[in-house]
Specification:
The chain is α+β, with helices and mostly antiparallel strands. The chain has five helices and 13 strands.
Length: 272
Amino acid sequence: MEKRNANGLTEKEFLAQYNPGDYKRPSVTVDILVLGMNEKLDGLKVLLIRRKDHPFMDCWALAGGFVEYDESTYRAAVRELYEETGLSDIYLEQLYTMSQPYRDPRMRVIDVAYIALIPVVEAHAGSDASEAAWFDVSMTDEEMILKNETLQVEMRYLLEKKVFHNGILQIENYVPKLQSEEALAFDHAEIVMEGLLRIRNKVEYTDIAFNLMPQEFTLPDLQKVYEILLGKTLYKTNFRDKIQDKVVALDKKGISVTGGKKSLLYRYKNRY
């Protein structure tokens, strides 16, 4: 026997008379925070796209765009990343849902942000962007800076500490406050900040850092990447004890980027 609701309708009858247009519906977008190590392994880079149309025309932004009707947000992130940068087959992780009502001046837009981690490669702008470039990005407890010296662009944000209440808990977090003339489009500064905080936390208990390494690497270089992500110096012995079960030694040597000397090469143990 089919179930009927309070109006006496079966599910089939209910769906036949249901009109989605009776309700306001937000659009959905994805944005991708692409992070990689710089060539000297002494800092992180973030891939930014210069917008070629309104809103925020000529401003720098994360790669992203609208989710199509028949795709998931993950598939949309994969598609947009390839369309705007040419990047594919890289690590993607959902980061945050940005849902402030007026975050986009065009309409009500809910954004699902993703993190992508890669070794630094040359950036190429796709059809939806006028330019793509790597920016050095750094963050302390006081400020966040994104800078490209070649383009002579610097975006600086003061990180204002706020306390948020969640049930019986008081949670400390930061709000980025613009301190420079140039700014990231939309609320992308908040996405960058949240992404850097996520990576700093997650590197402690996952193997996420290996996504930033080439297929073959030295242990001094791997340690340097961990130190950059964590924002602190690590003891060599303790670090090697921690990662010894995660790496496989290769029967060859290579030049360490950080030390400039020949060192034994390794690969990530669980690389497929």
